[in-house]
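Protein 1 of 2
SEQ + STRUCT:
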Amino acid sequence: MRAIELFLVCLLSFSTIEARANPSVDRLENVAIYQPQNGQFLEHQDIYWNRFGQIVQITPTKTTSLNLPQRYVIPGMVDSHIHFFQSGGLYARPDVLDLRKIRDYAVETQWTKSKWREWLNAYAAMGITSVIDVGGPFWNLDIERMAQNDPMLARVSVAGPLISNYDATNLKQPDSPYTLIKTFEDVRNEVARQIQAGFRFIKIWWIDDVNLREQSIRHIQALGKPIFFHSSDVPMVKHAISLGVDFLVHSPDTHFLAQDPELPPLLDSAVKRKPLFLSPTLLVSRNYRRGMDGNFNPTPFEVDHADPRILFSFNDHKFLKLRFPTPERIEANRQESIRINSNAKYLFDHGLITTVGTDAGNTGTLHGTSFFDEMDEMLRIGMSPVDVLNAATINAARVLKRDRWLGLVKPGYQADLVVLRDNPLIRFETLRFPLSVFRSGVLVNRFASDETQVLRTLIRAQLQRFSGVSLSPDFLVTDFSPSLQWALPAPPRPITIEVPGKALVQGGAEAQPAVAKVVFDRSINRYRVISIERRL
């Protein structure tokens, strides 16, 4: 059904997509094309691409096509900072909030790994046709290969395990997202292992030993690999800039850069030497607080586009009885956000090539939807719509070193295209609601959601809300119909699930699992439990 709807949108709502005399060439008619070099749209153009997904020609619109409503086309956008090993949910980072007794981290990781085909499709359908994973397990390479030739998925580029001398013990697994290093020999061995496996980028997460940090950076540079550098600490940032790293990941949060007299000449020298990129990740710290403080309250956009299973993970907060932050901590967090925003604008003003990167996957920073919140925040700190649109497209393509075939709408480039109803430089919010998206010239359809799984999660959340206890997620669906039948697991202690006008009582662990009949209201695409009946 979704595929049919998208086809009709393409056919009726905007410039016609149709085959030319040569059936291997498709086109968009009467569109305005974004040009980052001057920050303007070139109006009334037709775009043609071949069966390989490459744009072959752009010509002025024929008079006969001018009666079509003009739509606006930008290149596919790029999230320059995500993490595949993190779901974005409450259980994503046990090194920050250790809930492994509630949900085993190996189970969380395996579930997250199983969702990536669905999530990359969601990225692409939102107009984010490429993503960069800035560090994770070796199975990142499996995700990269999976997405390579599938036009329904966002393109993928990955870095290997984070190289660090910070011991994040709670993240350790057989295939770990980080590698603990103590000596330069450890660094050499790990870098060789990652290069041999095929990783394109190397990420330094945290090396507080100054000499070891310099040795590591020099060694990676000698091997010709781009370095992504975790840049939240100001002294480390200054050192990394002086050594010529390629990409600063995060806006520093410890001091105001504008108060440091050493930085202007350091930055001036660095940007003259070679391009220096920045992914400021303005919202990830605030999103952590939103996710862990019990005040998540998803936005309507998140409800419509994010994975509902991730959204409902935050409902567990009330059952876990986590502590709320003190007023002092709230104020400290507010000041941290002020420093992050101020420093991001300072670095942008001093010539760093800024990209839109979200750090999606961290608790509260949801895959896909957080990209648009990040762009809105960039506008709030003083970047112009042109600056932000370039940060989301051509700048990130330059990070990938693919700016000769991605990031622009012009002949020779891939037909990664986002078709919009309005001019985003005037109505920026139109970016959230593309009329259609093409990846390599193929119309991206949003996969039909696994409705059974979605309903399972929604009803589980309702049961938790009624019962006041956190139930096992391992419900077994025995039937899928307007009345769902669920096999409820035997609880570890007696519980009562109360529903208006009904009550379902189960015994303790010795009781056999009861089967409940759950009737739900399916109006306006929202699901609400309206009755639960005990079935023998």
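Protein 2 of 2
SEQ + STRUCT:
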Amino acid sequence: MSKPKYLVGQAFLLVLFFVASQAIAQNEAQTYKQKYPKEEVALKDVSQTYTWLWDKKQKQLIVEERNEEKMLSLQLNQKIKRAIFYDGNSAIISAEHKQNDMKKPAEIAGVCANYESEGIFYSDAMICVYSFNLSMIGNVAEFTYTKRTSDVKYFTSVYFTDGYPVINKKIVFQIPDFVEVELKELNFEGFKIQKSKSRNEREKMTIYEYTMTDLMPSGEGNIKGGSHVYPHILTLTKSYTQDGSKTTLISNTDELYRWYSSLTKDVAGNTSELKPLVDKLVAGKTSDAEKVKAIYYWVQDNIRYIAFEDGLAGFRPAKADLVYKNKYGDCKGMANLVKNMLKVAGYDARLTWIGTSRIAYDYSIPSLAVDNHMICTLLLGGKQYFLDPTERYCPLDDYAERIQGRPVMIENGDKYILSNVPTLKQERNLVETEQNFQVEGEKLIGNSQAIYNGEKKGNLLYYVHHTEKTSRQDLLNAVAGKDKNMTIKKLETLNLDDRDKPLIVKSELELANQVSIFDNETYVDLDWNKEFADYKMEKDRHFDYVLSSKILNKTKVKLKVPQGYKVKYVPNTLNINNPNFTIKVNFEQKNGEIFYTKEISIPEGIIKKQDFEAWNKAIDDLKKLYNDRVILEKTK
């Protein structure tokens, strides 16, 4: 029996609809593949809704997040992973997916585990990863999940960008009248974001809706921090009212400190257990600086840093005596130990909250998002000394780049002190290299001395002291620049165990591949290091390029002209002066010697986007000079 014509017609229409949908998806995919050639997937029709709710059963204020998204494949045979983060104050309620020939959404199981980032293990931070297979360009997978935050203090921010490009996105905040919430908008400039506000009188709530299109993928490397550049909203939940009673959460800086301070009461532990060690460390020391250094450096050297984020322990320091016994702690525990050891020694030391340079906020914003770190402040002789024991080999009154200039909140009983860590000039990071060479056949023979200060020194000391002794020589050879063209005959290091002095590396070298002989002419390359030769900025980069530190590198090379030769040619000088960087290279002949000097200076440690064109031209000029050679000619 034949099927009714209307059923055949419906089936035919469904096939047409499916084919048309696939064609539209493929055309859309091709469009975005051209726009984002390096990306596997683009997100389309993303909807995120955040609703503040009163949990009657638990009698607490919660935030529920509902996320719906479609992933559009831009490449063939893609296995896409989507991650949801949660912790002791949040939970994933449900997760569903729909892809390929599925008629309706189905639950999807994620692979869940503790979260680890850059070698740091966060015991309370969890991650669930969900996998999707997209075989063809234009394939679409739908992913939906619901997440709930049970303590609104920890619901601090919503970022608009994603690791993938976003075609269309909508973010909705539903705030009932019984809750006081401030939505602080940041980094909207330059992005296609529209905002609307409406009322739902039936539910007695205000609705804020943000729509956006063509969002770039986040994750560009060497930026100052996502909070500095990507559009996002800080969600400041200040209070709520239930049964006629108002409960204040964190509505201003005073209340932020009050909550922080409540978590740092009674964390000294049994400080009498610290006294024998403190007495031993300060014995024979006559000055305050010597005593403070002895305590501070001991903690740096003997307490292993392990990040531990576990509910309130993410903000509450471990007791000082416990950190001492365990010989490990997180930043809060280590700061607490330094504080209490200094107090045992008779000094005024305070716990101090701080956000590292990756965070864009200061303490005018009452949010847990303002800081991510804890240090200790020593008040001595009318001066504040900021002690960060997680920064191994950082001397007293010297500060790592990541905390320089950052605002701090220092404990002060029922009140607090707001201050800033000093910003140090680039001279702190001075690296000076001095080399003396002579030509022997097709080699350069001579010696080199490199003096390291600041950030580079601290990093090198850390790697040297955390390398097995059997491999330490290989590391030091690498520091000296050893490669297949270099033979190190002798290597000496000074001040490996004294963080208060510069690190000095001396070596006696033979350099192959730096001298070429053609008939009566000898070509000599005086710069085998060639700093920044490949540091050009990509044209499609969106943000400033942030280096790991401020840069001040100075190099001096002296070449003795061999007997029977004269100098036929030396390369031109290079003198580039930009407000944000300078590159100076000079050659000079004097008394039978050639002097090569080079200085590279980046005072802020940032190559600004506005300077990319000038910077790339400077690097081209520098590389051209690097490829030039001194020419020596035999005399008749």
